[in-house]
Each structure stands twice: as C-alpha cells, then as structure tokens.
Amino acid sequence: MSSLTYLAIGIPSPRNILTEIFESAKDSILSLRFDGRCAVDDDVLSIALRASHLQFLEYRIDRPVEPRSVVWLSDGLHHATLREMSIGYSLDPSPFGTADSDDIVRDHFHPISKRKFPMLRTVTVAPMVGWGPHDVLGVYNLEDGKRLEDGDNVRSMKLYFRGPRD
Fold this sequence. Notes:
Strand content: 15-25%
Number of helices: 3
Order of helices and strands: EHEHEEHEEE
Number of strands: 7
Strand order of the largest sheet: 1-2-3-4-5-7-6
Oligomer: single chain
Distance between the termini: 48 Å
Helix content: 10-25%
Number of domains: 1
Largest sheet: 7 strands, mixed
Shape: globular
C-alpha cells in the first residue's frame, strides 16, 4: 500500500483541507509545502506539526508580524522529527517592517529550542524575489540567537537569512 509522503497545498485557506487530509495521512507525510496563496497562521502551523514524521516544512509569511511574536513560544508547537524549515516573505512590504536580521532572530525565531524541536538543524528565511539563487545574509545559532561568524564552528541549529543576488 502506498502512502502520501509529500504534500503541497496551494489554496488560500488550507486549515480545513489540511485537517481532512491529516485524518488519514498524518503519519506518512515527510514534506509539507504551503505555496504563496496559503494563509498560514498559528492554527495551520499547529495542524501541520501533527504530522508525526514530518521532516521538512515550507511556508510563506504575508501578513505583518508583530515584534515578540509568540507563535514559537506556544507549548503546542513542538516536533520530534522536523529537520528543516523554509520561510519565505514578501519584501514589499516586509512582514517584519524595518527590522534587520538580528532583530528578526531575537523577536521571532529565538524561542525555537532544541527541547521542542530536537532534530531541527536549519531554518531558512528568505525574501520572495523571483526564482533565482540567493546569497546568505546571515547565519545564526538558534540556541542563543547570536550571529555566527565565518570561522565559528557549526552549531546544531542554524537560521539562514538569504537575500536576492545582485
């Protein structure tokens, strides 16, 4: 019997369809992608993290994000097998306002911890500008929120900020 391992959703309100699909496939999905049309809020993220074997999660932020967002502080947001997240966002306007990458890490992603996401290795945050390759703007250790310098040892959890190539 085959099982659903990769799921891409491209509808504006994915909550109901995701809940319906997860009734039978939440234990087989390894990769979950929400395209740019999807409104991914805290409820949708909570549902997505019910996929017990999920390893890759991709979504886009379009609505403004408040500083000190509590989405990752919620006890309901945890996952034992998630290894990688990719988060895209629009540049015009940026949902993070005028915050620089240091502020974004501190305010929005620093609460992601090894206790709640023990297998998570990489979180990539990138502006959605065309489909071309991106340069790394900064690499951060999510455990302490500090920017890694070129000579630093590789840490267990990293956050990459990527920008459009010139």
